[in-house]
């Protein structure tokens, strides 16, 4: 994991890059210093010099080298932290198969064979890993490093859309045995129809007079979630989360140290809460995910699909429709109102 920089103004810099007296310098892991460019260079020039250096230091004849160059690029560091983690995770399986092959030797039939074999265990993961391979090849193609993208024309597995609706009873059962950190996160995700990432990233500075200002990490749509008594209660509960003596936090949901919860750190709390709920309520099925809380929120909204879209922040009504999971109650023959 990269070290946190002391100077916030240097957060834009490439990994292991620092300001020297007269130049920007790269410090390899094994020691030493390599001059990148003059200290007066622009940010784009520093990144260009960095990528040129990294390209020279990688094995250009293997897909593993192309992947490493992508991981060291400005494009990669512009992705969200969670997407970066996912890509690195996907690369483990992909590189175990394609890592030592020259990129231009990888053909569509190889991708298809990989997909079919990987799909025996998980079709969803096969699709995600194919998308990762495509992203690396697209990046390389745009820079003249490869001749094409072998994933083009390779069909993905059809994924069954989730239709799990969390009932009020299931929600209440889980909430009743969960620790405060999970309770607050559940309420924010449900009431604000928010993604986990937006809940964990929520800062106290987003709490304004009109409500909670949320700019969705996926769609970039900004909205103010208006205050309601229940939302105010959730924020009040968040303010009561424990903090070590002398510590403060910028985040609504925070660890005792004041720092935010990572996805993995929070998910361990979430899974433990579901295990406790299963033990306390053996007859209730808790097979839902945290993301299903957003779907419950959208499903429980009143109004038409278009009205729900406006509240959810989706860019089109088709996205909203995938989250609207409550089964409609319709009349039987002879039971219609005239």
Question: What would you say this structure looks like, in words?
Answer:
The protein is mostly helical and 338 residues long. It has two domains: 11-101 and 135-142, no CATH class; 168-323, Orthogonal Bundle (hpI Integrase, Chain A). The chain contains 14 helices and five strands. The protein has a three-stranded antiparallel β-sheet with strand order 1-2-3, covered by helices on one side. Strands 4-5 form a two-stranded antiparallel ribbon. Helix 2 (63-71) runs antiparallel to helix 4 (81-98), helix 5 runs antiparallel to helix 6 (123-142) and helix 13 crosses helix 14 (317-323). The longest helix has 20 residues, at 123-142.
Please give the structural blueprint.
Blueprint: E1 17-19, E2 23-26, E3 34-38, H1 43-57, H2 63-71, H3 74-77, H4 81-98, H5 108-119, H6 123-142, H7 168-177, H8 180-191, H9 196-200, E4 211-215, E5 222-226, H10 229-239, H11 263-280, H12 292-300, H13 305-312, H14 317-323
Antiparallel strand pairs: 1-2, 2-3, 4-5
Helix pairs in contact: 2-4, 4-6, 5-6, 7-11, 8-10, 8-12, 13-14
């Amino acid at each position: 994991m990269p070290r946190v920089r002391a100077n916030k103004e240097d957060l834009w810099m490439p990994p292991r890059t620092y300001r020297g007296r007269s130049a920007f310098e790269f410090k390899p892991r094994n020691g030493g210093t390599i001059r990148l460019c003059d200290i007066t260079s622009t940010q784009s020039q520093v990144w260009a010099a960095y990528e040129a250096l990294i390209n020279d230091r990688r094995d250009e004849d293997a897909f593993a080298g192309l992947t490493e160059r992508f991981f060291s690029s400005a494009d990669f560091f512009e992705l969200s932290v969670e997407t970066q983690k996912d890509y690195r995770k996907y690369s483990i399986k992909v590189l175990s198969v394609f890592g030592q092959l020259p990129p231009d030797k990888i053909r569509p039939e190889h991708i298809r064979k990989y997909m079919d074999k990987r799909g025996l265990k998980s079709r969803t993961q096969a699709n995600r890993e194919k998308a990762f391979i495509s992203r690396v090849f697209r990046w390389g193609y745009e820079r003249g490093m490869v001749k094409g993208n072998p994933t083009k024309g390779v069909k993905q597995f059809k994924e069954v859309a989730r239709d799990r609706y969390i009932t009020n009873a299931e929600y209440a059962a889980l909430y009743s045995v969960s620790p405060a950190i999970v309770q607050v996160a559940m309420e924010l995700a449900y009431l604000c129809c928010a993604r986990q990432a937006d809940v964990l990233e929520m800062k106290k500075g987003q709490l304004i007079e009109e409500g909670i200002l949320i700019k969705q990490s996926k769609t970039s749509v900004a909205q103010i979630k208006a205050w309601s008594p229940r939302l105010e209660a959730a924020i009040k509960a968040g303010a009561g989360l424990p903090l070590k003596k002398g510590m403060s936090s910028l985040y609504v949901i925070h660890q005792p140290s004041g720092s935010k919860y990572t996805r993995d750190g929070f998910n361990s709390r979430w899974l433990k809460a579901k295990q406790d709920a299963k033990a306390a309520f053996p007859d209730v099925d808790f097979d839902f995910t945290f993301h299903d809380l957003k779907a419950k929120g959208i499903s429980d909204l009143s109004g038409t699909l278009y009205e729900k879209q406006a509240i959810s922040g989706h860019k089109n009504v088709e996205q909203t429709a995938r989250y609207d999971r409550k089964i409609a109650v319709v009349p039987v023959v002879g039971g219609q109102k005239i």
